[in-house]
Amino acid sequence: MIEVRGLTKRYGEVLAVDDLSFDVEQGLVTGFLGPNGAGKSTTMRMMLGLDRPTSGTVLVNGQPFTSFAEPLREVGALLDPGAVHSGRTGRNHLRIAARTNGIPLSRVEAVIDQVGLGSAARRRIKGYSLGMRQRLGIAAALLGDPRVLLFDEPINGLDLDGVRWIRELLRRLADEGRTVLVSSHLMSEMQQTADRLVVIGRGRLIADATTADILRGLGRREVRVRSSQPDLLLSRLREHGLVVERVEPQELRIEGSTAAEVGDLAYALGVALHHLSDVEQSLEQAFIELTSDSVEYHGGRTTQEVAR
Ligand SMILES: Nc1ncnc2c1ncn2[C@@H]1O[C@H](COP(=O)(O)OP(=O)(O)OP(=O)(O)O)[C@@H](O)[C@H]1O
Q1: Computed from CA positions of residues 185, 71, 92, 113, in that sequence, does the dihedral angle turn out positive or negative?
Q2: Alpha carbons 34 and 200: distance in angstroms, whole number
Q3: Do domains 2-216 and 221-278 have the same CATH topology?
Q4: Prediction ipTM score
Q5: Which of 127, 174, 257, 268 lies at a C-alpha separation of 20 to 30 Å from 7?
Q6: Is 39 in the pocket of ligand 1 (CB under 6 A)?
Q7: With 80 as the cut, is the pLDDT of residue 36 above it?
């Protein structure tokens, strides 16, 4: 479990993280979402003691990260897969990390297997593809068999197979009861991966809820309808108090209603319909809506209102 309380980081004029408070629970995959520059990496660095908060605290399994005698056994992290000595082989890189952290060398072979690095472990890292570097970075994170795992944008640049593999790995790690925090700016990816979402924008908390709740909470109902009598239909629907907008000469968009309701009304009015559908809001739309709010920065609005 990770507990973030009042976490704030200022770099000169830039308020990178602004009074963030949230929990990351064990046994779940928690997606940490926000547009570029939202403060995700800075928050993760502070969780790992790599950056000192201006104010506030982060506790990992009840303690500050810096208080752990063997931190790699407590927390594994994938931050920047490029930050490795590329002249070494993958296996050597892992062996050095194991040795300097008091981890038995048998774990090296175990994690090489676990991430499917296979024979590539014998090759020098400089010849690795991005996907292989990512697997090596994840192997390093798993080395100490930690209860808490942080992955900063692990999906970036991966092909479909790689994405699927990471998704399954995150699920497995959470099912084993570990705490899994994974950052991304791709809402659509998190929809399939995360149980909970912590969404931030400009360093501030925007939403902290289950993925399903965030979708439901934002799920603005919308109906599209086409008719040969759009003018008549538009005025009649408005008379019924619905918010209606014309999107094409013969197509209307109705907010806050359902296809069943609009269909029944049209039938009662004797207006023939050529098309009628409910429009599902995608997570991507929900995300844009959530974060565009943070860009506008409405004063006085509490952080979790949007999701609840
Ligand atoms: N060492 C630093 N010095 C000055 N400003 C910094 C530093 N690190 C981050 N920032 C600034 O803090 C803000 C948050 O950056 P951060 O990298 O944490 O965001 P992010 O959500 O991880 O974005 P991305 O998805 O682009 O990685 C940005 O405005 C960034 O420019």
Answers
A1: negative
A2: 5
A3: no
A4: 0.95
A5: 174
A6: yes
A7: yes
Q: What atom of ligand 1 comes closest to residue 12's alpha carbon? A: 4
CATH number of 2-216: 3.40.50.300
Q: What is the pLDDT of residue 233?
A: 93
State whether the beta carbon of 37 lies less than 6 angstroms from ligand 1.
yes
- Residue 147, pLDDT > 80, answer yes
Residue 308 has a pLDDT of 38
Task: Say what the pLDDT of residue 216 is.
Answer: 66
pLDDT, averaged across the chain: 87
Instruction: Quote the ligand 1 centre to 192 CA distance (angstroms).
Output: 26
Q: Which amino acid is at 2?
A: I
Cβ–Cβ under 8 Å, residues 173 and 149:
yes
| CATH architecture of the domain with residue range 221-278 | 2-Layer Sandwich (3.30)
DSSP character string of 176-217: TT-EEEEEES-HHHHHHH-SEEEEEETTEEEEEEEHHHHHHH
- pLDDT at site 281: 64
52 C-beta closer than 6 A to ligand 1: no
Task: List the residue whose alpha carbon is closest to atom 2 of ligand 1.
Answer: 11
**Ligand 1 and 42: CB distance under 6 A:** yes
Choosing from 40, 47, 183, 189 the residue with most ligand 1 atoms within 8 A of its CB, the one to mutate for a pocket test is: 40
CA 91 from chain center: how many Å? 30
* 243-259 pLDDT per residue, tens: 899 999 999 999 878 89
Domain ranges of the chain: 2-216, 221-278
Nearest CA residue ID for atom 4, ligand 1 = 11
- Mean pLDDT over residues 200-213, rounded? 87
